[in-house]
Amino acid sequence: MNIEAATEEFWKNGYLVIENAFSTDLMDRLHGHIMDHFSQSDPSILTDEFTQVSKCEIVPWFPQRDGGPADFDEIDQVPLLSALTDAILGRNWNNLYSMVMFSAKGTKGQAWHQDCPPEDNSRFNLNRLIYTRDIVPEIGGQVMVVPGTHRNTVLPAGNPDDDLEGQIELRPKKGTLVLLHGHTWHRVLPVTGGHRVSTNYRAGPAEVEADVTDICVYRNMRYQFSTQSIIEQR
Ligand SMILES: O=C(O)CCC(=O)C(=O)O
Ligand SMILES: [Fe+2]
């Protein structure tokens, strides 16, 4: 792969999709661990204010932080991922955390959002998203993005999950890497036909603080996770 061309494409569009970035074997091992983990928890309890207002329904798991299987560390060793991250963020980037996101059948996915406030374009996170199973319309959970919106543009206020002009639908396959700038407008469609899983190895530029994603911008509010509060109604 031409890392320079890929990096240019990332900065033009605010996202980049690379198929077959990870081996089938690694994807199967990770998916097995994810299924084991979520079969032991109850992902159906989603009644809090955040879930109600944000129209986001995911259950997170932090396998590397919480002593999960060592297989999750293998992603950090994949040379293509390191090379692309170096090229996009610069050499001393911060590896923030890995988060598995599980959505049960019949859940809403995630409404349009920016992972952190876009007003300062040097302050952003990089989502390094890994898909251990195909995302297909029969199950739902396709990723919607609006290309180019990472350039200092605030997501317009409005209905949380209305269509937006210029939106593009992504259907990442098993083994696909999606690099997504945290300011790029994005959402996850409802999960209708089965459960959905994605895993985000979040990173950020060296000079950006680790809690850069504490405040998330939705079309109807800004929400602060650390205080569990709506800090702006829109
Ligand atoms: O699960 C996905 O495909 C994207 C989730 C997302 O919005 C994020 O990780 O910031
Ligand atoms: Fe996001």
From TrEMBL:
Matching InterPro entries:
Oxoglu/Fe-dep_dioxygenase_dom, Phytyl_CoA_dOase-like
Domain named Fe2OG dioxygenase: residues = 84-205
- Cofactor(s) the protein requires to work: Fe(2+)
GO function terms (MF aspect): 2-oxoglutarate-dependent dioxygenase activity; iron ion binding
Looking at the record's lineage, which domain of life comes first? Bacteria
Keyword Metal-binding on this protein?
yes
Tell me which UniProt keywords the record has, alphabetically: Dioxygenase, Iron, Metal-binding, Oxidoreductase
Q: Which Pfam families match?
A: PhyH
Q: Which SUPFAM superfamilies match?
A: Clavaminate synthase-like
UniProt record similarity statement: Belongs to the iron/ascorbate-dependent oxidoreductase family.
The name of this protein is: Phytanoyl-CoA dioxygenase family protein
